[in-house]
Amino acid sequence: MDNNFKMVAKTLFGFEDILAKELTQLGAMDVEKGVRNVSFVGDKGFMYKANLGIRTAIKILKPIKSFRVTREDDLYKNVKNIKWENYLKSSGSLAVDATVHHSVFTHSQYTALKTKDAIVDRFRENGGTRPDVDLRFPDLKINVHIDRQRCTISLDTSGESLHRRGYKTATNIAPINEVLAAGLIMMSGWDGQTDFMDPMCGSGTVLAEAAMIACNIPPNLMRKEFAFERWEDWDVDLFETIEESLLKKTREFHHKIIGYDKSPSAVRKAIENIKNAHLDEFIHIQHEDFFKTQKAGTDKLHMVFNPPYGERLENLNVEEFYGNIGTTLKHGYPNTNAWLITSNLEALKFVGLRPSRKIKVFNAKLESRLVKYEMYEGSRKAKKQDLS
């Protein structure tokens, strides 16, 4: 138990429940939900495991000190008192990232600068040489979080945001974030037991995340590097053992994952990304206009998609476009659960179907809704009669 420590997984608004469930299933202890974060307890091996295997986390932080701050000097003194030599060589490099909600500390960049100064001054006073600042590839990435009068200093175990899985080399305008895509699929309840479709697949992110969920493939296997790989206590043998144990838990998938897009360039990009992710055996991408298609076969279909919006909607009539979504689903896709996300809340009125669920989420900083439309084999009334 002595080797266990507290960690905090940061996530998107509304994903706290899914993230807590993911962490619990992976074996985390003392899981507690916060706002846009979930705290938990584990050891070094679990830290590696969480970074490799969690789909809905943006970062995994390791808090090392928490203290009260009322003025600038409190930050400087407390940071300087941390034994940074335990985490970083004087010849190494560092980067500091800060988020602040405080009357004195109002600028995150200034807070990061004061933190850096305190660390550097400690090294300088102890031995004369000091670490460099490297914002791109630091040996140690430090996170400062000040909320009212409480400051928490953490080590960033992940480095670059965990949504950067490593498989996407080609993107379209306004691509969906990988963490958001995975979370939406998980929120929709899809478990890989039916066919899956993204009828407006763009660069293929939703398709790739769906395939990894269906096969239980760890989402971050393809990342070039995690921040902890530059730490003094980096254990490559332990990391490889954890990686192997996760890979042993992959499962077979016996259904289809289908992607459509009417843009030839989007289709090319999606195919390239899916190939990069080594998921092309599970995913079929076609150049199709969704509004001119019909569902193949009678089996249950699960659909998750991100219709164009904002800059992608420049030449589109919103009322007509969303009306076509409703018409296509109603007439061409019986026995389908269709989920879509949109930040254009007005546009949902034009779909012409009543959603059975509406969930508030954020796409970047845009407040959005994830909505569910249930398409039955016949009418809803007929369906109820069949069940009675």
TrEMBL record:
InterPro entries: RlmKL-like_Mtase (IPR000241), RlmL_1st (IPR054170), SAM-dependent_MTases_sf (IPR029063), THUMP_dom (IPR004114). Signal peptide: none annotated. GO terms for biological process: methylation. The keyword Transmembrane helix does not apply. GO terms for molecular function: methyltransferase activity. SUPFAM superfamilies: S-adenosyl-L-methionine-dependent methyltransferases. It comes from the Bacteria. Pfam families: RlmL_1st, THUMP, UPF0020. Residues 46-157 form the THUMP domain. Keywords: Methyltransferase, RNA-binding, Transferase. This is Class I SAM-dependent RNA methyltransferase.
